[in-house]
Design a protein that fits this description.
Layout: H1 3-34, H2 46-58, E1 77-81, H3 88-94, E2 98-103, H4 106-114, E3 122-126, E4 132-136, E5 141-145, E6 159-165, H5 167-170, H6 173-186, E7 187-200, H7 214-217, H8 220-224, E8 227-237, E9 244-253
């Protein structure tokens, strides 16, 4: 009996099942949010988005804010994985960045497109099964409507930075390795990851969001194999959750050998 292929098949089946469950959970979550339910841990404070971009710029070989006035220069390329309708995408775009977001919930990305105004400014194309691509007329916003874990070779080594607000911490342990692998593929050498996670004083085993510390991020199967930890930012802004603190970290993509 070929044991290794058999075990791989089991692992793949379990991972696929978990991913499908994850997708269904987040679709139902967004249905509830859009019908007036709890916003969960959404944060739309413009100051938080400005601060996040400032951290990215401070740790990335990129132009200053003033230089973004001339968008004819090469813009900073930022990836936002599992973005939901995070207003960071629109904010970074308004500062001249080139932003790509990936999310599997159509309604979340529809809400994001609405932030940009006229719906006619968007064009949609198919990039394969269950993978739609929306492009803004400015040429500086691309939205992938599909599974973040899907390999997208066209994105390999494309991005200067990643903005991750709670995406890693929303994933169960079995999904994190694939998530980190995609980010390691998509970032350029020395690319920056700005990541926000929850540090919880209670319910650490419950989630999402799950409790995440530096050691969780830097496990070899997560970011530890291809990234170095540059800085712990501590609390990045105050939450309304009494048992959680929003903390930030800066990681850097190691140079490929």
């Amino acid at each position: 009996m070929a044991v290794a292929p058999y075990l791989f098949t089991i692992h793949f089946a379990l991972t696929f099942s978990t991913a499908c469950s994850f997708a269904m959970t987040w679709r139902s979550t967004w249905d509830d949010i859009l019908s007036g339910g709890s916003p969960r841990w959404k944060v739309d404070d413009p100051k938080a988005k400005q601060q996040a971009l400032t951290h990215i710029l401070e740790h990335t070989d990129a132009p200053s804010f003033s230089e973004y006035d001339d968008i004819s220069s090469t813009p900073l390329r930022i990836l936002c994985p599992l973005s939901g309708d995070d207003t960071f995408v629109h904010y970074a775009w308004s500062k001249g960045c080139d932003v790509t977001a990936i999310d599997l919930v159509p309604k979340a990305l529809e809400q994001m497109r609405n932030q940009f105004g006229d719906s006619s400014d968007w064009t949609m194309s198919s990039a394969g099964k269950d993978n739609l691509v929306w492009k803004h007329r400015s040429g500086r916003v691309t939205l992938y409507e599909g599974d973040m874990m899907m390999k997208r070779p066209e994105l390999n080594q494309s991005f200067d930075a990643v903005y991750d607000k709670d995406s890693f911490g929303a994933l169960t342990l079995d999904l994190r390795e694939g998530f980190c692998a995609r980010l390691s593929e998509y970032l350029k050498d020395n690319g920056t990851v700005y990541i926000e996670v929850k540090n919880k004083s209670a319910g650490r085993e419950q989630g999402p969001p799950f409790h995440v510390e530096k050691d969780d991020l830097m496990e070899k199967s997560n970011f530890g194999g291809c990234f170095e930890h540059i800085k712990s930012l501590g609390e990045v802004y105050e939450l309304s959750m009494p048992t959680a603190t929003q903390t930030g970290h800066i990681l850097r993509r190691l140079v490929r050998k």
